[in-house]
Amino acid sequence: MSIKSKQAVAHPNIALAKYWGKQSFGHNLPAVPSLSVTLAGMQTSTRVTFDTGLDKDELSLNGAPSGEVELGRVTNLLDRVRARAGFQDRARVESSNDFPTASGLASSASAFAALAVAACAAAELDASAEELSDLARKTSVSAARSLLGGFAELRAGREGDETLAAQQVAAPTHWDIAIVVAVTREGPKDVGSSDGMKHTMVTSPYSAAWVAAAPKMFELVRAGVLARDLTKLGPAVEQSALAMHAGAIAADPGIVYWTGATVEAILAVRKNRALGLEGYLTIDAGPHVKVLTRGSDAEAVAAAMEKVPGVLRTIIARPGLGARVVS
Which H or E run contains 7? Predict the structure, then answer.
């Protein structure tokens, strides 16, 4: 019996310019450009073991067997690795997060980034960062950005694209900023990101407006990051997040990822900013509010958000490294 095993870690990324929607010509290509920051402070750890003694792929998430949908997505990525490596060995995949899973904190991004790195390493493939990013993107678009550290961008897909990988905009050390995550719910969200995105793009009257407006918001976000200008960057970050959610809320039927605590947190961010504590909100497909602020203000922002009714706890995260093999 032959066994090959490697473990990798990756971090979730928070999109400052949101990705929401896929191109109609398939191939898992995003409809709009996005820009994110990969976050230290939250981590996915994934071990992939190719074992000739297995007759099918196996997946455990946080110590429990996964469902068929999750296993299917994992097998999809592993099949690409096996095809390139020239073998058919099945794999045992053990993955765990040290932050809430499937709740709007980009756990799928870090999970598939870690899976791509661990699987290629276990298969003894010499894959570049660009190849790994494209591999992860083919299963989870946001995972393409978690392959890279610091600030990363992913352009919109174009018809005829055979590959599409994220590119680093700036290293983790580029700027001392922080993302303060106000956790408003510990369990998984009711509507997954992939299903919610597809439903929104098909049924929302705002979908075309979102696709048309997103590139401009992306450019404003990119310029703000490169200039290290929080006051310039913040409003574009808020607009991108709220425009994304407006489209989802307007779908038929509407998808509302927010809770009462989400709304309270939004109002708190704006109130604190008016009082001189500068921070800007962003929200992914989930109920948690993330506050973009200066690194020096992170503790004060976290303390303020912990006072918001319905906020369970906060996580302070800063720009971190890309996905990598650890053993």
Answer: strand 3-10
CA 57 to each of CA 9, 71, 139, 214, 260: distance values in angstroms, whole numbers, following the listed order:
20, 8, 16, 38, 40
Asked if omega into 287 is within 30° of 0 (cis), the reply is: no
Cα dihedral value 243, 248, 250, 255, nearest 10: -140
Measured distance CA(214)–CA(33) in Å, rounded: 7
Q: For residue 324, give the nearest of 165, 149, 73 by alpha carbon.
A: 149
Q: Where are the domains of the chain?
A: 3-174, 177-319
Tokens 């020239």, residue?
86
Please return the burial class of 130, using the count of CB atoms within 10 Å of its CB with bins 0-12, 13-18 and 19+: middle
Angle 177-33-205 from CA coordinates, rounded to 5°: 115
Quick: pLDDT tens for 161-180.
999 999 999 999 999 999 99
Residue 130 belongs to what H/E stretch? helix 129-137
CATH code, 177-319: 3.30.70.890
Distance CA(49)–CA(119), nearest Å, equals 8
Per the listing, tokens 């709009």 go with 32
Selected residue with higher pLDDT from 194 and 172: 172
As assigned by CATH, the class of the 3-174 domain is alpha beta
Asked if 18 and 241 count as a contact pair (C-beta separation under 8 A), the reply is yes
Closest-CA residue to 235 (of 247, 246, 223, 245): 223
C-alpha 48/C-alpha 121 separation (Å) is 9
pLDDT tens sequence across 310-321 = 999 999 999 999
pTM across the whole model: 0.93
pLDDT digits (tens, 9 = 90+) for 53-64: 999 999 999 888
